[in-house]
Amino acid sequence: MGNCGCFSFLKELPSPPQDKPKLPDLAGSSPPKEPRDASGKGTEEPSEAEAEGPGDDFSQWQPGKHGVADISPNQDGRLLIREPPKLPKDAAAVPDGAEVCLNLEILAGGKRMMRCEALRTSAGSGDLNLPEELELAIPCLKPGGVFTALCRPFGLGELPATGLWQSLVACYGKEAVLKLELLEVQDLCLATLEGHERLDYAKGRKEAAGRFFKRQRFEAALERYSLAAEMLTQRDDIKDNALYSQAQEVKSLCELNAAACLLKLEKWRDAEAVCNAILRANPANEKALFRRGKALLALGDSARASADLRKVLEVNPNNSEAKQLLQQAKKESKGTARERNVYAKMLQSD
Question: Where are the TPR-type repeats located (predicted)?
Answer without folding.
Answer: 286-319
